[in-house]
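To the team - 5-phosphoarabinonic acid complex, inputs and output below.
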Amino acid sequence: MIPVEKDVARFGALFAAAATTTPQPQPCSATSVIVAGMGGSGIAGRLAQALAERCGGLRVSAWSDYGLPAWADGSEHVFAVSYSGNTAETLSGAERAIELGTNWEAITTGGRLAALAHEHSAPVTAVEPGHQPRAALPLLLVPLLRRLTLSGIEAQVAEATEVLAEPAGDAGAIAAQLSGKLPFIYGAGGLATVAYRWRCQIEENAKQLAVHHALPELDHNEIVGWAAPPGNAVIVALREPDEPARVAARWEASRAVAWRDVPVVECRAHGKNPLARWLSLVQLGDAVSVELAHLNGVEPTPVVVIEELKRRLEE
Ligand code: PA5
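Output:
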């Protein structure tokens, strides 16, 4: 198993390798797709959904549960994304797609999902084995994006490759500000999905709890809870350059009314297009989670609790 910290350090190189080795765009013809996947594999679908919401081209619904949404009627195209190929929820999504007679395909290293796909003559995109699922994000995301009719996606993949070749930012300094704290990670639009990635990476790699939420929605609920914040709270604000004035105004107003006495760590994305911008902050968050693991004195790679839980549920 490749240590998570090694993959995190070469996130940009993994993305560039995936962009080079994945077949060039062969978008599926569906205008509505469901991307079923959990945890580290599920984040690929969440990013694809956020890109579709921002750029258009088709409807993407990320699904992280058993089966498929009740509204699925067989007219969608289903992607079952599971790094191991053995995740119960994702397998049950593929089984539901078979029941509905839906076009579906798998993105996986193998396991039962690949076997099911072969049995039903569904296409399989084979992913390189040996990584932790969450560290394999570039290897899962690029082939998925190349199957979607997302507007301008190839130019975005090209720009992201350039942006991710640069260092992520000062992850060590950010981690030092989050050590021993409860980070509340916030982002607007697609950066809410990136905030979720930060949360999951801090939890899995640094074995530390974190919270995430989205602007503007949090201004209508969570903001009230800041009347009595935990003493160790710190806010991480994920922001895009040249964000719309109404988003910038919202950050400033939220800070003025609710976060006056709370430390706020601001992280700015790099790049022109959404994919490059969002992934630049994924890259930084992943690096922060590894630095935080070191500060917490834990190994980033093992996720013993997840493995034990999966074993118990299989018994
Ligand atoms: O990070 C992890 O190991 C988990 O979040 C897994 O990705 C999750 O349990 C799903 O497994 P898989 O990615 O193999 O489908």
